[in-house]
Design a protein that fits this description.
The complex is a heterodimer of chains A (523) and B (643).
Chain A (H helix, E strand, L loop, with lengths): L7 H20 L6 H25 L8 E9 L4 E7 L1 H20 L6 H20 L3 H10 L1 H11 L4 H34 L6 H4 L6 H18 L8 H8 L2 H26 L1 H6 L1 H20 L4 H21 L3 H32 L15 H15 L5 H16 L1 H26 L5 H4 L6 H19 L2 H22 L5 H5 L2 H12 L1
Antiparallel strand pairs in A: 1-2
Chain B lengths: L6 H20 L3 H25 L20 E10 L2 E8 L2 H24 L6 H20 L3 H19 L6 H32 L4 H6 L6 H18 L8 H4 L5 H10 L4 H8 L1 H4 L3 H22 L5 H21 L3 H28 L12 H4 L1 H14 L6 H16 L1 H26 L24 H16 L13 H9 L10 H26 L11 H4 L4 H45 L8 H26 L1
Antiparallel strand pairs in B: 1-2
Helix pairs in contact in B: 1-2, 1-4, 2-3, 2-4, 3-4, 3-10, 3-15, 3-20, 4-5, 5-6, 5-10, 6-8, 8-11, 8-13, 10-15, 13-14, 13-19, 14-15, 14-18, 14-19, 15-17, 15-18, 15-20, 15-21, 17-19, 17-20, 18-19, 18-22, 19-22
The chains are: A mainly alpha (523), B mainly alpha (643).
């Protein structure tokens, strides 16, 4: 663990939270115009992005441990500390959040009550980043729960027709999962206290708690219930199509791109560290659910006529890929899973943003009401194409790198799961190309002919996402170099506890080494 | 001179980027010339690189030597693409006789077709976009053939696939074009599953994806996995190269502009599957079982597609099935271990089939977008350049001596003869159909009555007299015609030094079966080939020279492609759609979500009496707190339990 001079993480949490407060208070002053509030919001999230980039630039590739650690006593009586740190797994999720919120505030503005919208969004950013960097379990739980409040208000306040239903469903469902998480956290801490006499919720400390295998499985299931709902993983996903479809554009972007990652992040950072034995024991179950999710999400997506629901189901499939990579327990699978979390966030945010822009122009996202948009709006079509192809997994764009790592990594240890999951590759092309053809191809009719192409502002807003999609497709290595040390440390931790080993090819480097390893195995 | 090899793919990449960024401002026709220039640059660079490679001793060009020359003197790595743990993939190119042979004909044919397109696409509202896609295609194709490892090959493989998707649905406002583009992509995607699984399998066994290292450690792939790996790669090849069972996207792909059909769906991209098989030849050599599968699939595809081509009415559809059939021959050659014959036919085919498509484009262009051969005829008088060049291409494809197709197909069939007599018989029968359908197309188009002067039976009016194309379209025809005639000289049977087989020997070794055949056998086989071709052409001459109306010879079964699409639709398409709807409407909405809502209703009922939702935040928060309390109670119970 390295301590840094500048308290990056605390700033990353407090800056948007302070911004939220400022916008809420300033909004109460009648003379402040809504545009001013929006600009304040954008300035705050851009400043946050700047701090995040500054932190990433100083992030050391040499260690897999937590960096920029900040450890302050908070509620010492019950052992809770303000304990923050970032590692290779959380770094890119922090960056993802920091990158997306400016795009949300600039690209998915609302028509009514900008003050509350901006304030809730800023609070949401604070809660998201807080969740990703908290390594005290209670602090994590606090932020994890805090995300619910702004999300609920964003869906119910600025959503579409069935927003009330969607918001309540989202809230109750995820809150339900959280109850299990809270119980789990308390049990782990008390077990640790029982063993060492120290009451703490610090992740690095609890990592060494001895958990019997039966207890471990129960605790794993408790934690995972919360995380699997959040991700969502099959079959706990049914809140997500409603929430993603009914939320306003910005809400859909944040829910699918950032909040969903809290689920898979939680599995990686807490399940695997705290309950390695249970994670390995239950891997077949998780892998099976992941693979079902991949196929099921894709098949159901094929039957959608509503673009937002289509992307929601495609997200279900993508989160299945993340889980597949995680529970493969190989360097490639886990690294791919972490990268896929980031890539999926970027791509899904781009898709929801573009769908939102189509809605702005045509007041619909039903595919059968749209037609031939490529003729009046070629730049919109081209941008959509890039995001779509990244989602399909075209090599040269970011989605492929993560998908490839996940699949090749899981093939090493769980061949047949990987084989079935690879078939999902075909299905993704099926529904996305179908939707693209319906919306953008064909002879444009009167209603669609007047569709405006992307304005220069819109092009600038979406450009960062497109640049990331292309750049990480061609040159992902800087990202992989930062993820890998943490993943290797995590794999080592799991292997040390469970006495399992990933295959030699996963680490062996050359084929020669593999051959040598086989030779010794024979002897 | 080899270190300039990176220029080969770089030129079209730069062309692509420049046209993408400034194309609309540059406009027609300069954008077309820039695109053509970029590919010309690649062609020149390829010549220079080829010359450099030819100066090396043959031993330095091989890939299959032991570990000592492992990394390969002729591999150039640019940067690390993906490296995680034991997986290491570089963005790297490989220069060997095979990759450079491919580069030569790809850049050469592309250059001519770019030039042709300047004339063909004149006045199209998306003129510049066409060249953006074309340059992107050439770049991807070069990446495909120059890659030094399987994964970078896959980058090119997918790149050409997506360019094909864009170019087939180039006229996206036509529903048929849009659907055809999608179909092409999805059929290829099915094959890609095979490619990916082969990559995973090979990596899991050898720990590497670089060709040189895979070949050096190929003994690590045991009996079952080598067969699986080769067959999975072959599945990918059937998608890209339009073989059974994934061939029926190719005829639909004719919806694209004709230069696209010539370049992508005849000369280059569709041969990528054959290239992949040739590239993997050291692996193929280890699995005779897979070789048999490949040979049989190739032979059957060649035959089925040739029969279908005999009954087509649309000139481009006829040529498309001919392409499927010809690639079937190449696959048959691969399955017979006759890689040189496959490459030989591939190169010759690129010339004459590219020419046939360009010639058909010239006809289509001249007749105002008419593609129905029943409404052509007698065009030899009005379109002399097109007629003359098409004539040579016809004779080359029909394998009439001494045109290029005769030598290429002769080498191929002689090798198949050594492998299996039934497959040879099938190949010979297919050769008869080949010469027949090609002659039929030729006679229907260029001889007989000038049917385009009459109104069509469906009432559409007569066509204006056709006009010969401008020089930018005629010049490529002439150059390609030259090669269609003389490409056979690359590998004449009585020459043994400086031939294609000699040049490719570092890649394939001297594994040609026909070397075991006596001179008498070889001559006999050649005579048989020639007689079959000429006989079939004469039959077609008798039947189709004067009349275009012989329904008995165009059975519905053949016109409807052996009902292949209908079967897929009935077996996969419609049940699949029904399944998806069932999952969405019943399983997801009723069962899974129904359980969730049911549970929520139950909680609500017990907590608050039965009332509809309409609550708002506070009550649900209370519900949450209730759950939280339940959790705390559970926690306290658990504490007593564990302590």
């Amino acid at each position: 663990m390295t301590h840094a001079g500048f308290p990056y993480l605390t700033v990353l949490i407090l800056l948007p939270a302070g911004g939220a407060l400022a916008v809420a208070l300033l909004g109460a002053v009648p003379s402040v115009r809504r545009v001013a509030l929006e600009w304040i919001g954008i300035a705050v999230v851009l400043a946050t992005l700047g701090v995040a980039i500054g932190m990433a630039a100083q992030f050391s590739t040499g260690t897999g441990g937590f960096q920029f650690v900040s450890d302050q006593p908070w509620a010492t009586g019950v052992g809770v500390r303000w304990f923050l740190g970032v590692d290779g797994i959380s770094l890119f999720l922090v960056l993802l959040a920091a990158l997306l919120f400016p795009i949300v505030l600039a690209g998915a503005r609302t028509r009514s009550d900008a003050r509350s919208f901006v304030a809730w969004m800023l609070l949401l950013e604070s809660a998201c980043i807080g969740s990703f960097v908290s390594i005290d379990l209670i602090l994590f739980f606090f932020f994890f729960e805090l995300t619910l409040v702004p999300s609920y208000f964003i869906i119910s306040g600025w959503g579409y027709a069935r927003r009330a239903y969607a918001a309540v469903k989202f809230f109750v469902y995820t809150f339900f999962g959280s109850a299990f998480l809270l119980v789990g956290i308390l049990v782990v801490a008390l077990l640790h206290q029982h063993q060492t006499g120290v009451l703490t919720f610090s992740l690095p400390a609890l990592e060494h708690t001895h958990v019997s295998s039966a207890t471990g499985i129960l605790l794993f299931l408790g934690f995972t219930a919360a995380f699997a709902i959040k991700a969502p993983l099959f079959p706990l996903h049914t809140w997500s199509p409603d929430a993603y479809a009914e939320a306003p554009t910005g809400g859909s972007m944040v829910l699918s791109a950032v909040l969903a990652k809290l689920g898979t992040y939680g599995i990686l950072q807490f399940d695997l560290r705290l309950f390695p034995q249970a994670s390995v024991d239950l891997a077949p179950l998780m892998l099976t659910l992941a693979v079902i999710g991949i196929l099921y999400g894709a098949i159901v997506a094929c039957a959608q006529r509503d673009m937002k629901r289509l992307v929601a189901y495609s997200s279900l499939a993508q989160m299945g890929f993340v889980a597949l990579g995680i529970f493969a327990f190989t360097s490639q699978g886990l690294t791919g899973g972490v990268l896929l979390m980031f890539n999926h966030g970027v791509v899904t945010a781009a898709l929801f943003l573009l769908i939102g822009w189509i809605y702005d122009r045509r007041q619909t996202w039903q595919v059968n009401e749209l037609r031939g948009l490529q003729a009046p709006a070629p730049v919109l079509a081209a941008t959509f194409t890039v995001a779509m192809l990244a989602s399909i997994g075209l090599p040269g764009l970011n989605g492929f790198v993560s998908e490839f790592l996940v699949l090749s990594g899981s093939f090493l240890t769980h061949r047949w799961w990987a084989v079935v999951a690879t078939a999902g590759v075909v299905l993704a092309a099926l529904y996305l190309l179908w939707a693209y053809q319906q919306v953008f191809h064909g002879k444009v009719d009167l209603a669609n002919a007047q569709t405006r192409d992307l304005s220069w502002t819109e092009r600038i807003v979406i450009a960062p996402l497109i640049v990331v999609i292309v750049f990480l497709g061609i040159y992902p290595q800087p990202v992989l170099d930062r993820i890998a040390p943490t993943v290797n440390q995590l794999v080592a931790h799991v292997e040390a506890t469970t006495h399992t080993h990933q295959p030699a090819v996963a680490t062996g480097g050359t084929a020669g080494a593999v051959a040598a390893a086989r030779g010794t195995a024979h002897r | 001179m080899l270190h300039a090899a990176f220029l080969v793919p770089l030129f079209p990449l730069v062309g692509f980027v420049v046209l993408l960024a400034f194309g609309r401002r540059i406009g027609e026709p300069v954008a077309g010339w820039i695109g053509t220039l970029a590919v010309t640059g690649a062609f020149v660079s390829a010549i220079v690189t080829l010359a450099g490679l030819a100066n090396q001793p043959a031993g330095a060009r091989t890939l299959t030597c032991s570990d000592a020359c492992g990394t390969g003197a002729n591999a150039h790595s640019f940067f690390t693409w993906i490296a995680v743990g034991g997986l290491h993939v570089s963005a790297a190119i490989l220069l060997d006789p095979l990759s450079m042979t491919m580069c030569m004909f790809i850049t050469g044919v592309s250059m001519l077709i770019h030039l042709y397109s300047i004339g063909y696409m004149r006045g199209d509202r998306d003129f510049t976009k066409f060249f953006v896609y074309l340059n992107a295609f050439v770049f991807s194709m070069l990446v495909l053939v120059m890659a030094s490892n399987l994964l970078v090959t896959f980058v090119g493989w997918e790149g050409v696939g997506v360019c094909s998707y864009w170019l087939v649905s180039f006229w996206f406002f036509r529903d048929s074009a849009a659907s055809a583009g999608k179909k092409a992509f999805i059929y290829n995607r099915i094959g890609d599953v095979g490619f990916l699984l082969a990559v995973f399998l090979i990596f899991s066994k050898t720990g590497t994806l670089t060709y040189v290292s895979i070949f050096a450690h190929r003994h690590l792939l045991s009996g079952g996995s080598i067969t699986a790996a080769v067959l999975l790669l072959f599945l990918a090849a059937t998608g890209k190269s339009a073989q059974i069972p994934l061939f029926n996207w190719l005829p639909d792909a004719m919806e694209g502009p004709t230069p696209v059909s010539a370049l992508i769906h005849a000369a280059t991209m569709v041969t990528a599957g054959v290239y992949l098989m040739c590239r993997a030849n050291p692996l193929l050599a280890m699995t005779p079982d897979a070789m048999w599968v490949i040979a049989v699939v190739g032979g059957l595809t060649a035959f089925v597609a040739a029969t279908i081509a005999c009954a087509q009415q649309d000139i481009k559809k006829g040529l498309a099935f001919s392409t499927v059939s010809q690639i079937g021959y190449m696959v048959l050659a691969v399955g017979s271990g006759a890689y040189v014959a496959a490459i030989f036919l591939m190169v010759a085919h690129a010339f004459y089939k590219g020419l046939l498509f360009l010639g058909s484009g010239s006809v289509i262009h001249g007749l105002g977008d008419e593609q129905d051969m029943k409404r052509m005829g007698g065009l030899r008088r009005t379109m002399p350049w097109t007629f003359a060049t098409f004539l040579f291409a016809w004779l080359a494809l029909a394998a009439v001596p001494p045109f290029s197709g005769f030598w290429a197909k002769g080498l191929l069939l002689a090798n198949v003869y050594s492998k299996s007599l039934p497959l040879y018989a099938l190949g010979l029968l297919t050769a008869f159909f080949t010469a027949y359908y090609m002659s039929r197309i030729f006679f229907l188009t260029f001889t007989g009555k000038e049917r385009w002067k009459d109104p069509a039976p469906d009432g559409s009016p007569a066509h204006h007299p056709p006009h010969e194309a401008p020089w930018v379209m005629r010049a490529p025809l002439v150059v390609l015609a030259f090669f269609a005639v003389f490409a056979g000289a690359a590998n004449l049977p009585w020459v043994h030094v400086g031939t294609l087989a000699d040049w490719l020997a570092p890649v394939f070794g001297h594994r040609l079966f026909d070397s075991h055949q006596s001179a008498g056998e070889q001559v006999t086989l050649a005579v048989v080939d020639g007689v079959v071709a000429v006989a079939a052409a004469l039959v077609a001459w008798g039947l189709w020279r004067r009349t275009a109306n012989r329904p008995a010879l165009e059975p519905r079964f053949l016109q409807r492609v052996w009902y292949w699409d209908n079967v897929y639709d009935a077996v996969i398409g419609r049940p699949g759609q029904a399944l998806a709807r069932m999952y969405a409407v019943v399983v997801d909405a009723r069962i899974i979500d129904g359980a969730v809502n049911g549970a929520a209703n139950l909680v609500r009922a017990t907590g608050n009496g039965v009332r509809r939702v309409q609550t708002g935040f506070v009550r649900n928060y209370l519900l949450g707190i209730a759950l939280g309390l339940a959790a705390v109670i559970a926690f306290m119970i658990s504490r007593t339990w564990w302590s």
